[in-house]
Automatic annotation (TrEMBL):
PROSITE patterns: ABC_TRANSPORTER_1, ABC_TRANSPORTER_2. The lineage of its organism: Bacteria, Bacillati, Bacillota, Clostridia, Peptostreptococcales. Residues 2-227 form the ABC transporter domain. This is Cell division ATP-binding protein FtsE. Homodimer. Forms a membrane-associated complex with FtsX. InterPro entries: AAA+_ATPase (IPR003593), ABC_transporter-like_ATP-bd (IPR003439), ABC_transporter-like_CS (IPR017871), ABC_transpr_LolD-like (IPR015854), Cell_div_FtsE (IPR005286), P-loop_NTPase (IPR027417). It holds the Pfam family ABC_tran. It is a peripheral membrane protein. The keyword RNA-binding does not apply. Keywords: ATP-binding, Cell cycle, Cell division, Cell membrane, Membrane, Nucleotide-binding. One of its GO terms (cellular component) is plasma membrane. Gene3D superfamilies: P-loop containing nucleotide triphosphate hydrolases. It comes from Aminipila butyrica. Belongs to the ABC transporter superfamily. One of its GO terms (molecular function) is ATP binding.
Amino acid sequence: MIVFENVTKTYKTNIGLDHVSVKINKGDFVFLVGPSGAGKSTFIKLILKEIDADSGSIKVNGTEITTLSNRKIPKLRRSTGIVFQDFRLLPKMTVYENVAFAMEIVHMSSRAIRRQVPQVLSLVGISNKANKYPDELSAGEQQRVAIARAIVNNPTVLIADEPTGNLDPDTAWEIMRLLEQINLRGTTIVMVTHAKDIVDKMGKRVIVIEKGKIVRDDVGAYLKEED
Ligand code: ADP
Ligand code: ADP
């Protein structure tokens, strides 16, 4: 699914990732944690091929992406959805239009759009807001729309970059339940977070990055007893 082998990425004098090897399987739910500057964004940008590694191999869905030709990058991007802390919805489009737009830009037919947008809005529990604009929605509702947009093209991987960072605790948990539900449908989820309580209670795999290296990778709490 996602396989890093000996991946290094440096920015002039800064280390982004330092000889990282890791395997994330189809259907996994993984938390990516670590202090600011550890390399989490670098890891995600490499998966999306927004940046290139200096060395090493990165495979996504069996395809080596480090040597991928430009014309194959759109297909890679379609296989990965992403949601951000700050939602990043288009303010002049309605909820329906925001989600439909994600299908239009990858040239899906209007028939497919008319079928899939209502389905995905229903899945994330926001059908009743289809004709609202983002600024008419609560933060939690906006994140649901962002999730709908990220999954509408059926990506195999959903990357969530601090998706609960702007939400109150109850709303954050509603979003976690939704991500869990999406994961149960088979979508691999990689979630970057600083929310210790969420990581602890979810009991999923935790990959800890520090100074560009993976220092821990197992199932359990954000911090282990001995830390
Ligand atoms: P976060 O901790 O939320 O991932 P960062 O502060 O690490 O955010 O990075 C925010 C953005 O700034 C990222 O796109 C990252 O690539 C970029 N960035 C981080 N550090 C530097 C730096 N030293 N010089 C230039 N850009 C940087
Ligand atoms: P995180 O997401 O865990 O905060 P990043 O991957 O953004 O960490 O950053 C890892 C390291 O790479 C940091 O030292 C950061 O300053 C550096 N870095 C990230 N992006 C850039 C950039 N565009 N230019 C220079 N240094 C960068």
